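Researcher: Before we compare anything, I want clean individual predictions. No alignment, no superposition, just each chain on its own. First chain goes here; please echo the sequence and then give the structure tokens.
Model: Echoing the first chain and its structure:
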Amino acid sequence: MARISRALAETMTTARQKRKQFCASLAAITGLVAYAALVFVLAAGPPTAGAAANERIVVDWHTGLAISGYDPVAFFTDGKPTAGSPDFELRYGGAVWRFANIGNRAAFAAQPNVYMPQYGGYDPVGVSHGVAVAGSPIMWLISGEKLFLFFDNDRREKFAADPARVIGSADRKWQDVLSTLTP
């Protein structure tokens, strides 16, 4: 009986040692991953005002589509909202973007900050008041070579009357509005 209990104690000790080694290795790996992530974030530097990749984007919760599946490049090239195709999709900034053709997808992939709606697709008038109100791709305007989406026509007209004032106010409040959005 003493022999069995000693063998069992040795086996348990070996198992415990292996478990401890595994946990220590796992902790070391987790620490390295966290360190690498921190180095990556610090190397990227602070976000700039136009860093659209860091902005939260209005996305349909059911489909994951940005701007209701409309092609963001077409606002500039066609001068109107154009539905994108599931055949020409691109994942960017936590959203699925659709495009009318492969050329528009390539243009967006090369310079997403040029084509993405400002403030992640939130209405700039709402943002200027410190409120996140999703804009609609049907209510849009290009001002200063930037795409803006609005909640309704009244807000679009208010913006069009004095874009510089609304943009200035929205720029000042955008970070505060972002902090109220869920990731």
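Researcher: Okay. Second chain, same rules.
Model: Second chain and its structure:
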Amino acid sequence: MRLKQPVGIVSNTLLETAQLVREGLLNQDEIVTILKSQSRNTAQIEANIQEFQKAIAENNRSIPEAYQKFLKG
């Protein structure tokens, strides 16, 4: 799936970062940089999901109107 890979990358990066923190191999600036980067990545994933939901709602008129509004956010 289109979302599985980006979510997996964020997850793996965070797990690897946690391990590096435990080992004392990252300083505070490096940790902050990684966290900000992953925050931007998750924001992009969220935007992609919203775009996908909107497209589904707009292209599938058989979906009940209330659910279409929910999908469009």
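Researcher: What stands out in the second chain?
Model: DSSP finds three helices and no strands in the chain. Additionally, Residues 4-72 form one domain.
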